[in-house]
Structures are given as C-alpha cells and as structure tokens.
C-alpha cells in the first residue's frame, strides 16, 4: 500500500433538529484519523441520505450510516473510523 492514498469521502444529507442538510461535523473524526495515517481526502456530496462512502482509486471500499459516526472528535475512540482506515489500507 502506498503511504498516501487519496480517499474521496462521499456523504449524503441527514436530519438533525428537524432539518435535512449536508453537514460535515460527523466527518471530522474520520478526516482526522485518515490524515494521521498519511492519507489525503476530498469531500463529495451525493444524494443518498444518511450515508458515507469511501472511494479509493474509483472503488468503494467502505460504507456506513453517517449518524453512526461520533460527532466531532479525533476519531481515535470511534470504532467505525478504525474500520474505515483498515478498509482504506486493505484497498491496495
């Protein structure tokens, strides 16, 4: 695996406080932990509600519900972030 993968983080809108919108606050831990492992990332909005998908070299390597990610933080204690990094590492 190259030390630095380019990961596209595709995310959909989700409902919070009665408003459906695209929000990135639940992606902060995922972004931080990807950077800590030497990866670069870009964000891309898509239409699937409540979904997060990681794309490496044009291939979907991980999917989860955005509401399952911890709000804010550095991702170190979030088991889903750990699974996502493992999926990126095994993509090669």
Entry keywords:
Glutaredoxin, 22% helix, globular, two-stranded antiparallel ribbon, 92 residues
Could you characterize what this model shows?
The protein is α+β, with helices and mostly antiparallel strands and 92 residues long. The chain has a single domain, classed as Glutaredoxin, CATH 3.40.30. Helices cover 22% and strands 34% of the residues. It is built from 2 helices and 6 strands. The protein has helices spanning 28-36, 79-89, and strands at 6-11, 14-16, 19-21, 40-45, 51-56, 59-65. It has a 4-stranded mixed beta sheet, with helices on one face. Strands 2-3 form a two-stranded antiparallel sheet. A hairpin with a 2-residue loop joins strand 2 and strand 3. Helix 1 (28-36) packs across helix 2. The protein is globular, with a radius of gyration of 12 Å.
């Amino acid at each position: 695996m190259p030390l630095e993968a380019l990961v596209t983080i595709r995310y959909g809108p989700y409902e919070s406080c009665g408003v459906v919108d695209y929000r990135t606050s639940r992606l902060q831990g995922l972004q931080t932990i990807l950077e800590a492992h030497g990866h670069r990332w870009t964000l891309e909005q898509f239409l699937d509600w409540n979904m997060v998908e990681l794309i490496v070299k044009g291939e979907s390597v991980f999917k989860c519900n955005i509401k399952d990610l911890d709000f804010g933080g550095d991702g170190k204690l979030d088991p889903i972030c750990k699974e996502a990094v493992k999926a990126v590492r095994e993509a090669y």
